[in-house]
Write a structure and sequence with these properties.
The chain has about 550 residues and is an alpha/beta fold. The chain has three domains: about 170 residues, Rossmann fold; about 220 residues, 3-Layer(aba) Sandwich (Rossmann fold); about 100 residues, ANL, C-terminal domain (GMP Synthetase, Chain A, domain 3, 2-Layer Sandwich), CATH 3.30.300.30. The chain contains 14 helices and 27 strands. The strands form five sheets. It has a seven-stranded mixed beta sheet with strand order 2-1-11-10-12-13-14, sandwiched between helices. A seven-stranded mixed beta sheet has the order 7-6-5-3-4-8-9, sandwiched between helices. Strands 15-16-17-21-20-19-18 form a seven-stranded antiparallel beta sheet, covered by helices on one side. Strand 8 and strand 9 form a beta hairpin. Helix 2 crosses helix 3 and helix 6 packs across helix 7. The radius of gyration is 23 Å and the shape is globular.
């Protein structure tokens, strides 16, 4: 029997919950009053109608560059209801990073926090498609800079749209969102995510965590990532549960907030686990309502420490990417096993571990590249926006190539091992080595550069190492001078921690940079570490 996909659109999911449980609590922002499902439904309608009134139509792209706030959700759902596409932009993007995503998506309208307007003003001449920017008015302490062409308006103008239902047919096959993922040999790629793709990301969390109406999700991940908006918020909506949305993550207040809001579920990602555990322990740490946590990646020691300290007995892990959904997750009744991603969600996906050079399937227990393909249409990315060559490249032999290494055990469980590609992942952020290199090459003293991922200590997270060949005709700069150059031109998380001046970057006979040699070599006695000298990167 064919899968019923009539509800595989966020607006339809919310409309059903509003009809079946109108007075049930859906979501609140920090200590503000919660919205019921009925209130959320009407508010999303209001936003959708308001966007339509200013000329946003079916298939149009609208940029959202906002901190966590409910206006983000209402915009996403409202845009979905008129068939428009929300473009999620990382709030740390500036300089050429921001120019690239804006020129790639070609959006005419953006909704931007006031504090990001100076970054936008600096690149105004490079983003000719962008015509109008709406700015939330609450807490706007930052003065608006002067723009020569872009019209900056208050988001208040969009807050009074009619709450009437919207008669636009939107289906699971229509594009519902664009998220950008990092590149290694080119700029970040805009992932075209159909509504069915978005729906299954939420459904995977509902199923793997057994979310229900009595659950309350504590959400401190950014909404411009799939973790915050799809895995947690959309998963909560599908389950008919409630959620508490925080502006950002704070290790210092994390357990106090979890307790105050009576959260039963939450996610921690990467270094967040260590940040939480590094806080001074207290006698009441385990006095909370958490029943399950999605923590990844996580070691056995970290998982055990979280469980013992905070009284959480159930942990789940999974494997997925923006492009390929969440095709692997640990069944709810499976034991807690750190590093075990779980079993293939074979109702919707096929997953194999293959030799990275031949795409031939590896025997059980042997490590290879994780390859994925969908069983249902439109539950997978539909390509990279404006980059057909990259789309074809990643779909070699009709398998999506994740660039990640893993192995299957004899039970059919997938274990994530590490990356195969030159992707850099730092504290939950994917970093384009190409874009880091492009910024550094703008400095007159840099002749060549290769950015790679390295680990500062065994078992630690990725950090960025920039290996630089200096221009002999220019005085050699201090490493701090290069970082001062990088900071206003790239996201704070992409600024290299390590810099090493080298005589030559290893290359193949065809002049391709051999980043694997630099990555495998790691740090040396000549490597400069900004943390050792106390250099702070501002946001």
């Amino acid at each position: 029997m064919a899968t019923d996909k009539s509800e595989w659109v966020v607006g339809k999911t919310l409309a059903r919950q509003a009809q079946e449980r109108p007075d049930a609590r859906f979501i609140q922002f920090e200590d503000n009053e919660p919205y019921t499902y009925a209130q959320a439904h009407r508010t999303a309608n209001s936003y959708g109608n308001a966007y339509a009134q200013i000329g946003v139509g079916f298939g149009d792209h609208v940029v959202l560059m906002l901190h966590n706030r409910l206006e983000y959700l209402w915009s996403w759902i409202g845009l979905s209801r008129i068939g428009a596409v929300a473009v999620a932009v990382n709030t740390a993007y500036k300089g050429r990073f921001l120019t690239h995503v804006l020129t790639n998506c070609r959006a005419g309208i953006a909704v931007v926090e006031p504090e990001f307007l100076p970054w936008l003003a600096e690149i105004e001449d490079t983003v000719p498609d962008l015509k109008t920017v709406y700015v939330p008015s609450d807490g706007a302490d930052v003065p608006w800079p002067e723009f020569s062409r872009i019209d900056v308006r208050s988001l208040d103008e969009l807050l009074n749209g009619p709450e009437d239902d919207i008669d636009v047919e939107v289906t699971y096959s229509d594009i519902g969102m664009i998220m950008f993922t990092s590149g290694t040999t080119g700029p970040s790629k805009g992932v075209l995510m159909p509504n069915g793709h978005l729906y299954l990301i939420g459904l995977s969390m509902k199923e793997s965590m057994q979310l229900g109406p009595d659950d309350r999700y504590y959400i401190c991940m950014p909404l411009f990532h799939a973790q915050g908006i799809l895995m947690q918020t959309y998963g909560t909506m599908q389950a008919g549960g409630s959620a508490v949305l925080m502006r950002s993550f704070s290790a210092r207040t994390w357990i106090d907030d979890v307790r105050k809001y009576k959260a039963t579920a939450t996610n921690l990602l990467g270094a967040m686990n260590d940040f939480v555990l590094s806080q001074p322990p207290r006698a009441d740490d385990a006095d909370n309502d958490l029943r399950i946590m999605c923590a990844l990646p996580v070691t056995t020691d970290t998982m055990n420490n979280l469980s013992k300290r905070f009284g959480v007995n159930k942990f789940t892990e999974l494997f997925g990417m923006t492009e390929c959904n969440l095709p692997v997750w640990r069944p709810f009744d499976a034991p807690n096993e750190a590093g075990c991603s779980g079993k293939v969600w074979d109702e919707y996906f096929e997953v194999i571990v293959a030799h990275p050079d031949t795409d031939e399937e590896m025997p059980v227990g042997e490590v290879g590249e994780i390859l994925v393909r969908p069983k249902e249409p439109f539950c997978f990315m539909q390509g990279y926006n404006g980059m057909p060559d990259r789309t074809v490249e990643t779909w070699r032999n009709f398998w999506f190539h994740t660039g990640d290494a893993g192995r299957f055990d004899e039970r059919g469980y997938l274990w994530y091992i590490d990356r195969i590609k030159d992707t850099i992942r730092r504290r939950g952020e994917n970093i384009s080595s190409y874009e880091v290199e492009a910024v550094l090459l703008e400095h007159e003293a840099v002749a060549e550069v290769a950015a790679v991922a390295v680990k500062a200590e065994l078992g630690g997270e990725d950090e960025v190492l920039a290996c630089i060949v200096l221009n002999p005709d220019v005085p050699a700069p201090e490493p701090t001078e290069l970082l001062d150059f990088c900071t206003p031109r790239m996201p704070y998380f992409a600024v290299p921690r390590f810099i090493e001046f080298i005589d030559e970057i290893p290359k193949t006979p065809s002049s391709k940079i051999q980043k694997n040699k630099l990555r495998d070599r790691g740090l040396s006695e000549r490597t400069w570490d900004r943390e050792k000298v106390g250099y702070k990167v501002s946001r």
